[in-house]
## 1
Amino acid sequence: MRSLPTPSPSFTKKKDRILQQLSIPDSEYTDASPKGSIDAGIRHLIDEINRLDGFVTTSSCAGRVSVFVEGKKAMDPEQQAQLDEGYDQEQVALKPAQIAGVGGKGGGGSWLFVSHDPVPLEEGPNRADLDLLLGLRSTQVSGQRQIGEGGSSENPAMRLIHFKFEPMAGFRESGAINLTANAGESVTPIVAIRSMGLTLESLIGMQTQGGPQRTVSAEYLETLLRIANERFVANAERIERFRLGVLEATQPPKKEDGTEWEDAQTRRERKRAEGLRRKAELQKQELDTGQDGAYADSYMTLNADTT
């Protein structure tokens, strides 16, 4: 990889501010994630990237398994008008527009369970109560209200419960942004990293008046957790490959003789620095030699006078 340009003052200032925030102890640091702090499983990667000149990152999700209730969207003006005209709220709520998109946790959605580490699954008397662990009720829902094709049900306003495993991820979408800037502004490219192929999601229940209701068997939940645990292992391997790849890509390139490659500007600066250093060393040697000679002359004159 060729040497990066010197970071702009605005980037350096932004990076310093980010590093100050990240230096806060984990017990005091908070962010917008459900965990509220940087995942321990990826802290070393963040620190290594932030030690690289010209790089900075705050992405902190090392991967997680979660159970959540999807949220509702806010009422549109038409629905609000129907309420004002005396329509029953339950009738208005039947509109599909009331439900947030699949996977959406906004609009009143809630987390029932989140873990950034594999979930221990023990057999025998120590076997975990998965309903208690995941925040669910085990009573099966009547067949008249089972989840149907496409995640819908007889009640379009029903809020579904999702089980989801997500691997290491940075931003919501992958890609590169801020590659160009307006006139007079510095460029700070942002690259979003996402690990693909490991995501797992399944509908496992629905929100009822009695609370979060499981609609799948306990064996199915256990199978989902076992798959998620396997993907935690694969995710950790990917994180390590990514870490090594970043470090390798940011090392100075080598020439055939094993020495580091340098562009013309870097070579000129190195030669100039070497020349100034040699000049300073020669001046120091001349000064030291002159002082030694003066001491010798004084010593010889003193001996002559004494005799």
## 2
Amino acid sequence: MRSLLLHIYQDDGLEGRLQVALDLARRFDAHLTCLQAVNYEVAMPGDFYGSVVIEMLPHLREQAAKLREKLEQRLSHEDVRWDWIEETGLMDTRLLAHAALNDLVILGADAPGRREGSPSYLVGALSIHGRTPMMVVPDHITNLDCDREAFVCWDGSSEASNTLRAAVPMLKLSRHVCLATVAERKSYDGADLPATQGAEYLSRHGIECEMIELPFESRSIGETLQSAALARKSGYIVLGAYGRPRMLEGVFGGVTRTMLSDPELPLLVAH
């Protein structure tokens, strides 16, 4: 990984994902691009003529400028290569545009307007419409130790396979890799790949892994996987996102929705 894209937005998780981005940039000797997408086209309920928004614009521009000045000053003292891009537009569209020429996108688990108990719409948009893997950083995370165990969630799907391939550069740094499946109470038609094939793929890259099967419990699969990763003191989780349509995930729930709604560990996610 040589090119990293960091989402810049003033929220509770900014400091944490900045530190994670710096950790990754140092480990991979990568270039860090900081993308500050400022959306001035905001709407206020009842503001039919846009007068309130017009009054807000100078304040929004001032806040964006202050944030950039503060972070650029900090970055100038860091031992990484970096640049800053400030653009006007919707966050998801600007992130998608720049993600295309980056190896990894670092963004928070939260997003503007996110409802409590729901996953970030930014992660969903980049998962479905983009091809670049993401590191989703919970607000409480302050660093990323790439040497710690990597907990890989495996269900044999194409999403899990794509994410496993994308994770290889990071998995090579981990002292231990765990490939975890959940013994679901359903039969498979042979379309899904067994965990042994995932392990064989990793072995060709010089990565040994431990395969474990977690029992199916009354709680959700997402909760089962996350609890196991926490119990093992894993450093991060590798997860294939949205193995079924996002609409169904939203209505019926799903592993992706569960783990992105309230993540406890950083998530390396791809679709």
## 3
Amino acid sequence: MLPYQTGFFDYSLPEDLHTEYKTCNEGKIPNDLWKTISAFANADGGKVSLGVTPDNKPIGLTTKQLDRVQCDLLSLCQNSFNYPIVPEIQLVGDVVTAYISPAPSQVRPIYSKSRGASKGAYIRIGSSNVEITDEIRNQFAMAARGGAELIEFSGLHYENCFDMVVVNEYLSAISQSRGNIYQDLSTTDILIKLRAINHSGNPTLFGLLAFSKNNILQENTAPTVNIAITQYATDSKVNISDPNETFIDDREFNGNVISQFKSAANHLRSKLPIRGLIDPQGLRQEYLSIPEIAIREALANAIAHRDYSTYSSRIQIDIYADRIEIINPGRSLVPIERIDETPSVSRNPTLMSFLKDFHITEQRARGIKTIRDSLNSAGLKEPLFENLPSSFRITIYNSTFMDSEDHLWLQQFKKHNLNERQLTALTYLKNSHNSITNHTYREINNMNSVGDDRRARHELERLVKFGLIFPQGETRHRRYNLNTNNL
């Protein structure tokens, strides 16, 4: 393990979505540091390291410079923006490292007071700090007002655009889950309380998403407020054997979100390969190559968490020979590395509650865990969760957890006499490009017994001892990364 791969920061990693390095010539904070702070605060947060070159070589600071840089950094964060930033600062040797947390949606965008909101606000895209566009600024403003789902459509009346069969089904569902709290109210009054309509009977976007009939939702928003499913013949969008073939199936699913969900889920199910298994009685049992619950949870997640403030793209599902990719507009509001450890956060809480009442999704942040567990139980690869520049993607593989390439790669560790769980963890680190925690290690290995946390810690420590992985962070929040320098 290299000396700088310890504690709060790993300087062997290049700059990326959550990482930036600054040299700090003569012990002075860079003039453009405010851009990085604004960009991290307006995105998913990130760590900036002062005293490291852009190509991630630590050059360090003197003791006097360390004190000055910390004071100047803190002053910049607390006094130079429209909302005070509280960085988490830590010294790692002779380098200052600061974590900038994501700003609350109510105060975004974070901008430099001296430059103003139009020129002083940035957002992190990849490894770059990019000036915020008017579209992003409008999305922030909408989120601060409660989100896109509460937009009102003054030219419509709910009686002309709601499917009352769906409305009555929903009212019946909530009467069972919440009791008869609405028994003395009219349907109109209930819809007002549910924020599906305003007092004039005009539907909100949530109301159209939940209850619209036919294609009224798409007609009054955009054709992209739907789900598209495209199937390709190979593991790529380009079929090498037949370059003229663009896809083998392409469908769109419209209507309200319940209709979209049911139709898309059924179509996906029809596209999943069927595998056979001989049971102990010698009878052949057929089952889907990907657990249906994983597909349903991923689809529900896309509907519940998509950004409805933008119509530039739709929920897009691509079916390849070896995987399914589900992409929804809007990045995850939770950092990817904590996506299965953080309480549920939604940009559409009213829609989320509606989907929960219809038993399509939950509000307990269990969807991602359900996807992971079901795929792991089926012996499939760990799913991949990614924040793209303006969207979120889940990749679900239908190939087994370890392919022939993985088995070949694992041969180099035979001398260490590792057990199957350790090999599984190394394969996960290689394929997911993520770090793991003790909790993750136990999850991917189905370790659910008393004492498994200690067993996992011991097995991870052995991997550290052999130099195959390295720890990062304090004991309670420690994460483990693949030590590519030794592989």
